[in-house]
Design a protein that fits this description.
heterodimer; A: alpha/beta; Rossmann fold; 4-stranded parallel sheet; globular; B: alpha/beta; 8 strands; about 50% helix
Chain lengths: ~425, ~375
């Protein structure tokens, strides 16, 4: 099934290659310094203020999986002592390090600092402890209080801001580069602009038909979103993406010739079978109009933006309250409810991934809520985001087919 | 008779009707019972509110999972499921609230699933900091405890005074001192205090008012002192990783029967969380917060950049003159699985033998484990 491939895809590829080239340069020459960071609710703006290149083990891991190269490093990590039930992202990343494997083929630098932005995912702490131990690099755990109420408290914000300032001092000490407040504001301003553009893109999916798939296509956009959010290249890329998708919407073009189903997807994709998985939905001409996975790095479609006038505070607020992983489970239910109602979806797909308990622990209860409290048809399938051994293709396809057949009847019944 | 005390303890920890909690509530008609999920909770604040803090480690092998599987699916540890099952089968009726903390992703999600399914319960989540190196974590945690205190004051309808908090800190200090003393004694004379005995004795405290439990520890201590027991040829081991879901009692017994002296463990770790007393002078919430950051035992659910857990394990091995480490990891317990990798590396560097065993709380056959442990012990004792 052919889907839309425009300028967005070409530019995305280019940007990701450039990022790997910068990491390679850092590895070869020691400059720019690289700092390891996690994707979810991070403080990449702070790194940009120092001209430091972020290194994302999660992106490395998913790149390996999507290129069908994740099994070998996973096995190497298991050989070292990791359990079959450990997060396979971690195993692929650590295993790749053990085997000297990189997604681009270029080199990856030894990080100047392993900066763990702990936002909800407990695996993040373990992962970065291990990275720091294996690479003999310094570790800083930036402890972000989990969002246990509707909004973070002033004490939560003060705690994160205090730690961000400690990180600044630590980076100054490690790199010898003084912190540049203006550059920081500039980075925050870029993020603000990217977030606005990205949010407008997400709202385009409310169109019927939606001009893009807010799960599969959103993933293409997520690379630049995470790597370039706080840089001018990011702003330029998202301007281009918005213009291209707005034009599609104006022409009334959807992902398929005709859009048959609109769904919301919860959970990360099975990267080792990304193509096969996408095809399962494409054959039903089902478009994702929203997805929770695309909000791991940040939730901007409901209005939050970084603010260059309050850079530290808004970086803290983003880490605390405006990314999927640091928000509590019931807030995720509410996020899905809003997607279904406001983006106009016919059903919800829950993809349970065994690696990620943050996402998956309790998804049965989530299904109970969506089907019973919201009355929305829901499909629940299980596999993994990184480990190819957990993808039962035929079985998953059968379930997807059965779901859409039922959904067709359901829609018909409602229409009658 | 110490055997009688131990028998009582075993009955208490096996009881999923929570008779001790019901009894306490009958005696305290205004009182509320707050269950806390492992590993640690600031029980002093709960007790100072005139409530009974109860350490709830799932339902073990006493409850068949019939409903919770549909909510938590595959690859999720048993304790999360049996805790939810307790709720879905009305077993949590004696409780007025439940407290969780930032130990792992499954437990955290369980907190919010319970909140949705049991809206009449007070369900709260404490963020216990993972950045002990930052001075700001002290300020933050005091705020977090103040938030909990305010929530409990509202729930109980009465003020929690500093004086009452200090009194509770002292009572729990006393209790922890008694537990620490038993642990030291057990390490010195493991033939006198069996691992399963110490386990049931300490864990029974999860379900009792603290002063009653301290008295029970004393009574047992006197009984142990009177015991005639002879040392046997056994391998001195540290048991690590069973800090949350608890192994079946049969598994703890088996380790000793297969030739081990357990000279240190992390079972029900929350009951002896502090390595020394929590100060009783000054601001009590600050004292609790600082103690969490500076006086906590090492644990797989608490990150402390100043003191790596791998070193803490080696220190434990040395301090207890242990000959080996047995990792007892609950199936699907990710914090334990992760730590195992770095622990293993460090133990191998230090030349300390180790064995990895997996368990589930509802396990009931142990033949395979027994053979594994026996082989391990024989190889080391008679090499």
């Amino acid at each position: 099934m052919a889907e839309y491939r425009g300028e967005i895809h070409r530019r995305q590829k280019e940007l990701m290659q450039q990022w790997y080239a910068r990491l390679d340069e850092s590895a070869r020459t020691g400059w720019p310094p690289a700092i390891c960071l996690m994707i979810s609710g991070n403080c990449v703006e702070l790194l940009e203020a120092f001209g430091i290149v972020p290194m994302y083990p999660e992106v490395n891991a998913l790149q390996l999986a999507i290129r069908h190269q994740s099994l070998e490093p996973i096995l190497a990590a298991e050989e070292m002592g990791y359990a079959t039930d450990n997060c396979a992202y971690v195993k692929a990343d650590i295993g790749a390090y053990l085997l000297g494997l990189t997604p681009s083929g270029g080199r990856l630098p030894r990080p100047t600092l392993v900066l763990c932005n702990f936002v909800g995912c407990n695996t993040y702490i373990k992962w970065f402890e291990h990275v720091a131990a294996l690479l003999d690099a310094p570790l800083y755990v930036l402890d972000v209080p989990f969002l246990r109420s509707e909004e973070p408290s002033p004490a939560d914000v003060a705690y994160v801001v205090a730690q961000l300032k400690e990180v600044v001092a630590r980076i100054e000490q490690l790199t010898g580069v003084p912190f540049d407040m203006e550059r920081f504001r500039e980075a925050v301003r870029c993020s603000q602009q990217v977030e606005e553009l990205w949010s407008r893109i997400k709202h385009l999916a409310r169109h019927r038909p939606s001009p893009f798939d807010a799960y599969f296509d959103a993933i293409t956009l997520m690379g630049p979103l995470y790597v370039y959010r706080a840089r001018p290249e990011g702003v330029e890329f998202f301007r281009l993406a918005l213009a291209e998708l707005e034009a599609k919407a104006a022409r009334g073009e959807g992902v398929y010739e005709s859009e048959r189903f609109r769904v919301v997807v919860e959970g990360p994709p099975p990267y080792p079978y990304f193509r096969a998985f996408r095809d399962m939905f494409a054959r039903w001409r089902a478009t994702a109009v929203a997805s929770t996975y695309s909000t791991v790095g940040g939730i901007w479609e409901f209005g939050f933006r970084h603010d260059p006038e309050r850079p530290f505070e808004t970086v803290a607020l983003h880490m605390l309250a405006h990314n999927l992983t640091n928000r509590n489970y019931l807030q995720r239910y509410e996020q899905i409810r809003r997607y279904v109602r406001e983006w106009g979806a016919d059903g919800v797909i829950i993809h349970f991934v065994k690696s990620c308990r943050l996402f998956s622990a309790g998804q049965g209860d989530m299904r109970d809520y969506i089907t019973k409290a919201l009355g929305v048809p829901t499909l629940y399938i299980e596999s993994d985001l990184e480990d190819p051994r957990y993808f039962a293709e035929a079985q998953i396809r059968n379930r997807v087919d059965a779901f859409f057949e039922a959904l067709e009847r359901h829609k018909h019944a409602i229409a009658v | 008779m110490v055997e009688e005390v131990l028998h009582r303890c075993e009955a208490i920890i096996r009881d999923v009707s929570f008779a001790t909690v019901r009894r306490w509530k009958a005696e305290h008609p205004e009182g509320k019972a707050i269950a806390y999920f492992p590993v640690y909770a600031p029980v002093e604040i709960i007790a100072a509110a005139g409530m009974l803090p109860v350490g709830l480690h799932g339902a073990g092998d006493r409850l068949e999972i019939q409903h919770a599987d549909a909510r938590f699916g595959s690859f999720i540890c048993s304790i999360v499921k049996t805790t939810l099952e307790l709720g879905l089968t009305e077993h949590l009726a004696p409780f007025d609230g439940m407290l969780f903390s930032s130990i792992c992703d499954s437990a955290r999600n369980l907190c919010f699933v319970l909140k949705r399914n049991f809206p009449h319960l007070y369900v709260d989540f404490l963020h216990l900091p993972h950045n002990a190196t930052s001075a700001s974590s002290r300020v933050f945690l005091r705020h977090e405890y103040a938030r909990l205190k305010a929530a409990l004051e509202e729930l109980g309808g009465r003020e929690i005074t500093d004086e009452r908090l200090r009194e509770m800190i002292e009572r729990y200090n006393e209790n922890r001192r008694a537990i620490r003393a038993l642990y030291d004694w057990r390490a010195a004379e493991p033939h006198r205090i069996r691992a399963w005995e110490l386990y049931v004795l300490v864990r029974a405290g999860d379900f009792l008012p603290v002063e009653e439990h301290t008295a029970m520890l004393r009574e047992a201590g006197e009984g142990f002192a009177r015991r005639q027991a002879r040392p046997r040829d056994s391998l001195r081991v540290v048991v690590e990783s069973a800090f949350c879901e608890q192994p079946p009692l049969g598994m703890i017994r088996l380790l000793e029967e297969a030739g081990c002296y357990i000279v240190e463990d992390d079972f029900t770790l929350g009951r002896r969380w502090f390595t020394e007393d929590v100060p009783t002078d000054g601001d009590p919430l600050q004292a609790l917060a600082e103690s969490y950051l500076d006086r906590s035992v090492a644990s797989s659910v608490r990150h402390d950049g100043r003191r790596p857990r791998v070193r803490a394990l080696i220190e434990k091995v040395r301090a207890r003159r242990a000959q080996a480490v047995i990792f007892l990891i609950a199936k699907f317990c990710e914090p334990a699985y992760f730590d195992y990798v770095l622990f293993k590396r460090e133990l191998e560097r230090e030349g300390v033998p180790h064995l990895l065993l997996e368990f589930e709380e509802k396990m009931y056959t142990f033949e395979r484990v027994q053979t594994e442990v026996e082989t391990f012990v024989e190889a080391l004792l008679f090499e």
